[in-house]
Structure formats: structure tokens, C-alpha cells
Write a structure and sequence with these properties.
- The protein has 30 helices and 36 strands.
- The chain is of the alpha/beta class.
- The chain has an 8-stranded mixed sheet with strand order 29-30-31-32-33-34-36-35, with helices on both faces. Strands 7-6-9-8-10-11-12 form a 7-stranded mixed sheet, with helices on both faces.
- Helix 4 packs parallel to helix 5.
- It is globular and about 95 Å long.
Length: 903
């Protein structure tokens, strides 16, 4: 069961091919002929045994079973595909790959139903197939088999797939896997990513994406993959969604592509914007560079190219990596008199290979530098090949990313070839080299976002969720979608967001009385469920200084709005005291809901010019303080400066962060919330106050793709990222005294989990992992600790040592047990695993962890739990029987027993 469910598809041990009559090429499809050629081109020592059948093959079921194979390759006319799938199922295939095009959605659904009935994992139709170079497997119509390597390519475009393979052949880039996923297919990109995340041969992944059908499933798989290895994504279709009918400013300034950006950042992946950038990122990934920051040193023999590189670095948010004063002082005597080390490392036009090597070694060892771009322009007397050799030598002495830009053409051809052979990415322009580093450097920044697993509610005072729910449900009961300003502010108040006191006046006299009680100056605003933007109909009046002016303004507002919107229902006019703040900043906090990604939280500059300024930054809920702080920093108003009139003072930033956390709580708790504006939110050194607010709601819809039908509302099915399930935290007593804290696993638990595995006896490790490992490999450790709480769960038992770690210090903690479930592809059952520290065996911890994880499985709506136990693990088998599990032989391996229990 440790094998991935898609192993028969992507790492088959045997093949059966349906490609038409062997002796009648005229009756074969174009795909069949190409597939036959691809398979025939494999080396004589092909590792995957292959046999050919056709749908007219006769014989008994026993005779056909002799053709049993892991994978069926099917390249037949559309009319013959159902029969071929049925035969593949009858002969025991576990996966099928359909090579053909022009299959519409209805026909594809029929094929998927057949595949499910026959127990087949189905890739296709409408794709180009799969290449696995390390297996010498070319089950595709993509052309020649790619060279073997560590880079995986997954693409929804056949044309781009073949183009990238052609590019790779000329640039010494190899692949671990190439997968073409067409439209209307059964297996989508999310499932392919899930396999590649666990594939030991794949060290980095490139994805070309055109559309997403199931946001939650995609985000889950992408987060899992990006946690294990770098993932670079190129997405087509960057047009903003049409916002002509937007009910809030946030919806008007946020397009679907912005939301996709936010999703990729949170998933820990890197996005590129063009086909050329994808190639650049592929070059860097193929070189296995792992930058840890954004400080880029530029080493050049020409001032102009160096300045271009520096300008582009600034444009895309990188920082110049400068040598420390002592390092610069040590390097200067080794360079020519023309060299400059102020910002760039400008070696001068007379730079020699020795100068380059000295500069590269200095920058490679400087702690203020995260990566290096070496620029060479053909100068009189310059030796391009010798300079390239100096780059190769310098790279061997430093683990930092080194990218080259050898400008020109004929004069540097041989040098480029030398760099390519050495695996050093090289580019023709400074901008391309800097951009490539920027794309890969963002991997580290996004990984910090990926590691965040916030709970749905923050640590602050608990909100009045039921009070806010009553307001929202009453609006929906009236068949309205837009809350009035007063209703919106009451919801904000329920979540402890400060608001200005606002009262509704239904006559000019009431407006005068209310204004007098509140104190002047006041603001008057039209109150109507039919008017989205009050200022558009001149429905706002500010700085009213007297009761008489308030009365007259009320009358004028009503008349103006009735002329502008005679169809609008008008409840009256709200009166509120002006929120004057001498040094206050107007910002906007909002929410928009995207299809298919769900809600996203927006922050930026606010006020009446919000759509013109279009200052926006986005983050996916749920948020914690780290994510809220990064969200503020990404907006222009949050990045201008830290203190004073030029930027937000620290107290204002803290107030904004708290508001963002509260908005995140609202989004998590209310799937009905579709859009929201808090604009303006006035912030200063005293805090924040919401001056105006607007909320749009709808009846809660079905879950985002990938959820389980039996899940409760508490599973936050409307969010693409599952919050940390704090509700599963509990303290459990142990036999013999003491207790442990049982809670869902977190990314920060990686080191404690590794310590647990290392502390086990060799026998205990073998019983759990069925191998002689002494510790968990880094990719597996990452995958086990950063999980998608929607499709799996791991509960860890944490014990605190009685003795403090240091005198006066806190008690140390360690993980002493882990129980885990992973939902199977049938979405109805799950597989479990259990691990308990040797010194906690016999204290009832194993049974308590199993009981807790079984309860989680029930809550998810699953109906069965099963697992594999080594036949010699008598203690574990005894525990399973005590917990009501049935124990049976495992047909695929007699060394194991299959244990299962209905839920």
C-alpha cells in the first residue's frame, strides 16, 4: 500500500497495447502508428515487457488473463474505445492510457464510467500520453523519447509539450516524466502532481496550465508537491474577469488572474508569465539551484549590461547583493584599476578570466549574497571560452546559484556550449538572466507562506458568530444579497472590528437630532439595499457642522438619489460622527470570491479613488499574524515606509493586521460571504476604525471540488485551503500516570518526528516501515508533516519532559506517537498507519491514538479504514483485533496482513 495508486500508470511493470491490426497499417489511427514507432524505437533491453492485442481477440477469460499487464495503451478509433477498456479490465489491467483526440465531454464521461466499473485508472483521452525516460518508456505520440533527468513536465497543451521537448533536446535538459493531460480527461493535473510529489526520480516540476476544474484538489496536490520539490507554473488566460456589475470596490479591482497568483504563492509554487520564462526556470531547476534569498550579485565586464541587469532586478523586487567592506577590500587588489565594487562588481572592459574567477569566489563566499549573475560581453582581447571555464571552476567551489549571460552570438557560441555541458544556466540578455533568478528566488519566499497552517479563529477575543449569523440569515430570508451599511457594521462589530457609531434617520428632523447628539462634524450617507456605491449617485455628504445643515442635507440627499435612481428602495439616511484623524491613512480591506478558488482577502489603499489607484494585495484565507503581515507588506501603501507621514506607523500596521485576522475569521465561518468592502478603514497610531462597510452574501453553495460529500460544515468546504483543525486537540491520560497532548501535525513538527524515528530500535523501525531505514528522507519528512487536512490527517502525541530543558527554561517537548489516515481514491475508505515510541509502548497510547484517528475518519464521512501490518508484528496485529479490525492475508504480498474495519 505504500505504492502510489497511479504507479501502474506511470511506472508499469508490463504493457498491453491496443493499436489496431498488426498487418493492416491503413486501418490504424495516426496515434497508433506513432505509438508503435515510439515503442519500437526503445532499446533492445526495454525494461517494460509489451504485448499487442486488439478488441477482436478471441479466447476464454483464462486465456486472456495470460495477457495481464499493469497498463493498457489504447490508440483506436473512438467507436472501439469502450470495448478496449472493457477488455483491459477483464485481463486485469490496473490503468489505461487513451491516445486519441476529438473526444467530446459526453463521450469522455462514458469512458470514465467504464474505467471506474473495470477498476482502471484512466489517463486521457485528448492527450499526447506519457514519457518516462528512466524506464525507457515512450507511451506517447510526442515524438522521440526525451533524455533522462530529474525534471518533470506536466502540460495541458500538446503543442507546448512537443515544443518544450524539442527545446530540451538542444539544451541538454532531461526529464523524469513528461505527462500530457488533455481536456475532458479522467485523471487531471492535480492527480499527476500528487504522484510526482512522491516520485523519487523527480526533483523539480514544470507545469503548463490552462484551466482548473477542482480548486481544493488542485491546491492540495500543488501544496504537497511544492513542499517536497520546486514547482514552476505557467498559466494561460490572464484576462481579468468582467467586473462591470461589481457590487464592491474590491471586486472591481481584483481579476481572476490576481486570485490565481495568490493561490500559487500560498501553495509554495513559482509562477512565470511567458513561455520564455518557463524555459529559463526549467534551466535553473535542471541545474538544481536552491536560492534562499533575493540578494543578487551582478558581476560584469561592461557597465551598460550591468546597469540593465540592476534595473531589472529592482523592477522585479530583487535586492542587489553587495560585497561586505572587508571582502571588497580583499578583492580589489586582485582586479584591474578600472574595476568598481560600489554596487555592481564591474570588472572593467579589460577583465580577464582570472578577474572573473576571483570576483565569483568572493561573491560566492559572501553572506550578503544569495545568487550571482555573471555577465560577459565580447570586448577586444576578451577570451569567452576561458571566461566560461572560470565560471565552471567557481561554481564547483560555491553552492550558491550561478547564472551566466554571455551576450552576442558567434563570439560566444563555444563558451555557451561549455556552460551548458557544465549545467550552468546561460542567457542571451541580462534581463532574462535576472528574471530567471527572480523566479526561482521567489520559491523560497513562497515556501514560507506554504509552511503556515492557521486555525480558523485567531487567539483574540472570541467573536459573536451566532449574532453575525442571525444578521446574514435575516438578509437572505428577505431575498436580499447586499447588507446595508448598518447591517454590515453590526457584523463587523460581532467580530470585534471597531466601527464608527452609525444611526439611521428617517426624516430631516431625526437627522438633526441624531447629529446634535453625536456631536459635529458628522457625515450623512444614503441607506439603500439597491445602491452599491453611494458616491456614484451623490449620496454622501461630509463635514456637516450644524443641526440645521444636517436637516437640510437630509432632504437634499433624498432628492438627489431619487432623481439618479428612481427605482431604488431608500430606508433613510445614516448619520455618523466624522472619523477625523490628523495623521490617519485611508486603507481598504475587502473580500472577493473567485470561481473556482473561492474567497480571497484583499488589502490596499482606500478612499474614493480606490479603483483609480488600484493598490491591491491578496492572500488566501485562513490567515495568521505572519500571513497578515506579509499581506500588508505586499501592498504599496504598506511598503512605502515604516514610520511617519510617508508610510504606516507601527501601531497602524498592527491595527490593520488585527482587522485582517478578524476578516479571515469571518470568511472561514461564513461560506455565505461573497464580497466585502471596509472602505475606508482609517488607521493611525491609535488604532483602526471602519468608517464605511458593505457586505454581499449568497446562500452557501456546494463545496469546492475535491471535498467529501459527508463532511460537516466545520470542515470549511468553501475554502481552497483547509484551516488547521484545532478542534481535534485533546489531552489524553496514560496508563501508569502522566498525559500527552494529542493534536494534528504541523510543518514545524518535522524535527521532532525525525527524532522519534531515529530513537526507535531497528526492529521497531522495520515493523513500521518494512525497511532498514535509520531516518526519514527529507522529501518524505516534508510530505508527512505538511499535509492537506482535507484528504488526510495525522495526530501526534506530544509529551513534555518533567525536567526543564535549562535552568529556568521551559520544559522540552517530543513526539511520542503518530496515527495517520489518508483517504483512498474511492473517497469512501482510508488507509491508516501507527507509530509509538519504544519507551511509551504498553501504556495504552497506541489504542488511544487509533481511537482518535478512527473518530476523525468517521467525521469525514468515510465508511472503512484499512492498513497493512507485517505478519511477524504480533503486537500490532493483537492491537488491531482488540480494536475490532478483521485480519486477512494480503494477496499481493504474503509477508503482510490486511487489517480492516467498517466505520
Amino acid at each position: 500500500m505504500d505504492r502510489h495508486v497511479l504507479t501502474p500508470l506511470f511506472s508499469p511493470r508490463s504493457l498491453v497495447v491496443f493499436a489496431g491490426p498488426d498487418d493492416e497499417p491503413a486501418l490504424q489511427t495516426a496515434e497508433a502508428r506513432v505509438l508503435r514507432e515510439a515503442l519500437a524505437a526503445a532499446p533492445g533491453d526495454l525494461q517494460v515487457p509489451t504485448q499487442y492485442l486488439h478488441v477482436g481477440t478471441q479466447g476464454t477469460l483464462g486465456e486472456l488473463a495470460k495477457a495481464r499487464a499493469d497498463l493498457a495503451l489504447i490508440a483506436l478509433p473512438a467507436a472501439e474505445l469502450p470495448a478496449a477498456l472493457e477488455m483491459a479490465g477483464r485481463i486485469g489491467c490496473r490503468a489505461a492510457l487513451l491516445l486519441g483526440h476529438g473526444i467530446d465531454a459526453d463521450e469522455s464521461l462514458q469512458l470514465q464510467r467504464i474505467a471506474r466499473r473495470e477498476g482502471l485508472h484512466l489517463l486521457g483521452p485528448n492527450g499526447l500520453g506519457v514519457q518516462r525516460p528512466l524506464l525507457d518508456l515512450n507511451a506517447s505520440v510526442m515524438g522521440p523519447l526525451a533524455a533522462p533527468g530529474t525534471l518533470a513536465l506536466v502540460s495541458q497543451s500538446g503543442a507546448l509539450t512537443t515544443a518544450m521537448l524539442d527545446w530540451a533536446r538542444g539544451n541538454a535538459v532531461g526529464f523524469s516524466a513528461v505527462v500530457s493531460v488533455g481536456p475532458n480527461g479522467a485523471i487531471d493535473i492535480a492527480q499527476v502532481l500528487d504522484f510526482l510529489a512522491a516520485d523519487a526520480a523527480t526533483q523539480s516540476i514544470v507545469v503548463y496550465l490552462e484551466g482548473i476544474a477542482h480548486a481544493r484538489r488542485f491546491m492540495s496536490a500543488l501544496r504537497t508537491a511544492a513542499n517536497a520539490k520546486p514547482v514552476v507554473v505557467l498559466k494561460a488566460g490572464r484576462r481579468s474577469a468582467g467586473n462591470e456589475a461589481a457590487l464592491t470596490h474590491s471586486r472591481a479591482i481584483v481579476g481572476s488572474d490576481d486570485v490565481f497568483d495568490a493561490a500559487l504563492r500560498r501553495a509554495g509554487a513559482v509562477r512565470v508569465r511567458s513561455f520564455v520564462e518557463l524555459f529559463s526556470a526549467a534551466q535553473c531547476l535542471a541545474s538544481r539551484y536552491r536560492p534562499v534569498g533575493k540578494r543578487l550579485a551582478i558581476v560584469t565586464n561592461g557597465g551598460g549590461p550591468g546597469v540593465l541587469a540592476a534595473d531589472w532586478a529592482s523592477e522585479i523586487g530583487l535586492q542587489l547583493g553587495k560585497l561586505a567592506p572587508d571582502a571588497a577590500a580583499a578583492l580589489a587588489p586582485q582586479l584591474s584599476a578600472r574595476a568598481s565594487l560600489a554596487d555592481l562588481v564591474d570588472l572593467g572592459a579589460d577583465a580577464t578570466p582570472a578577474h572573473y574567477q576571483a570576483a565569483l569566489e568572493a561573491t560566492g563566499h559572501d553572506r550578503g549574497v544569495d545568487g550571482i549573475v555573471a555577465i560577459f560581453s565580447p570586448q577586444i582581447g576578451a577570451d569567452a571560452v576561458a571566461t566560461a571555464r572560470s565560471l565552471v571552476a567557481a561554481r564547483a567551489r560555491s553552492g550558491k546559484p550561478l547564472l551566466a549571460c554571455f551576450m552576442g552570438d558567434a563570439a560566444v557560441t563555444a563558451a555557451r556550449q561549455l556552460l551548458a555541458e557544465a549545467g550552468i544556466p546561460n542567457f542571451r540578455t541580462p534581463e532574462a538572466a535576472v528574471g530567471a533568478f527572480g523566479n526561482i528566488a521567489s520559491f523560497y519566499q513562497n515556501q514560507l507562506l506554504l509552511q503556515q497552517t492557521p486555525p480558523p479563529l485567531s487567539d483574540g477575543p472570541q467573536p459573536d458568530i451566532e449574532g453575525a449569523r442571525l444578521v446574514i440569515e435575516s438578509v437572505l430570508a428577505e431575498r436580499r444579497k447586499t447588507l446595508t451599511e448598518m447591517e454590515s457594521k453590526s457584523v463587523l462589530s460581532a467580530f470585534h472590528i471597531p466601527v464608527t457609531q452609525t444611526l439611521l434617520a428617517r426624516s430631516g428632523h431625526e437627522a438633526m437630532m441624531i447629529a446634535t447628539q453625536l456631536g459635529f462634524p458628522v457625515a450623512l450617507k444614503i441607506d439603500s439595499p439597491d445602491i452599491a456605491h453611494k458616491s456614484d449617485v451623490h449620496g454622501v455628504a461630509l463635514d456637516i457642522q450644524s443641526g440645521t445643515a444636517a436637516r437640510d442635507t437630509y432632504t437634499a440627499l433624498i432628492e438627489r438619489v431619487k432623481r439618479a435612481r428612481p427605482d431604488a428602495r431608500i430606508n433613510g439616511v445614516t448619520v455618523q460622527k466624522m472619523a477625523h484623524a490628523r495623521r490617519g491613512h485611508e486603507v481598504c480591506v475587502g473580500v472577493v470570491t473567485d470561481q473556482p478558488f473561492g474567497p480571497v482577502i484583499v488589502f490596499g489603499a482606500g478612499g474614493t479613488m480606490i479603483e483609480l489607484i488600484a493598490d491591491r494585495a491578496m492572500e488566501r484565507p485562513p490567515l495568521n499574524l505572519f500571513l497578515a503581515r506579509r499581506l500588508v507588506e505586499r501592498a504599496r501603501i504598506g511598503a512605502v515606509g515604516a514610520v511617519g507621514a510617508e508610510g504606516l506607523p507601527p501601531a497602524a500596521r498592527e491595527a490593520i493586521e488585527q482587522v485582517l485576522l478578524r476578516v479571515s475569521e469571518m470568511v472561514c465561518e461564513f461560506p455565505q460571504l461573497r464580497e466585502m468592502d471596509i472602505n475606508p478603514l482609517i488607521v493611525d497610531e491609535h488604532g483602526a476604525v471602519a468608517v464605511d462597510a458593505r457586505i454581499v452574501v449568497e446562500a452557501a453553495s456546494s463545496a469546492l471540488g475535491g471535498g467529501h460529500g459527508g463532511q460537516r460544515m466545520a470542515d470549511y468546504h468553501h475554502l481552497a485551503i483547509q484551516p488547521y483543525p484545532a478542534r481535534h486537540e485533546q489531552r489524553l491520560p496514560l496508563a501508569g500516570g502522566g498525559e500527552v497532548l494529542v493534536r494534528p501535525i504541523q510543518p514545524d513538527d518535522a524535527q521532532m518526528l525525525q527524532t522519534l524515528v531515529r530513537s526507535l530500535t531497528p526492529e521497531s523501525r522495520y515493523m513500521r516501515f518494512a525497511s532498514a531505514i535509520t531516518e526519514l528522507p527529507a522529501p518524505l519528512l516534508a510530505r508527512l508533516t505538511l499535509i492537506d487536512y482535507d484528504r488526510e490527517m495525522a495526530l501526534v502525541a506530544v509529551a513534555s519532559d518533567a525536567a526543564p530543558a535549562a535552568e529556568g527554561g521551559p520544559a522540552s517537548e517530543r513526539i511520542v506517537g503518530v496515527s495517520r489516515i489518508i483517504t483512498n481514491p474511492d473517497q469512501a475508505s482510508c488507509e491508516f498507519s501507527l507509530l509509538v515510541a519504544d519507551d511509551f509502548a504498553g501504556r495504552g497510547l497506541g489504542s488511544r491514538l487509533m481511537e482518535s484517528i478512527i473518530e476523525v475518519a468517521r467525521e469525514k464521512g468515510l465508511t472503512e479504514i484499512d492498513g497493512l501490518v507485517l505478519a511477524q508484528n504480533s503486537g500490532m496485529l493483537r492491537l488491531m483485533k482488540n480494536l475490532g479490525f478483521a485480519v486477512k492475508p494480503f494477496a499481493e504480498d504474503p509477508d503482510f496482513r490486511l487489517v480492516s474495519r467498517a466505520l
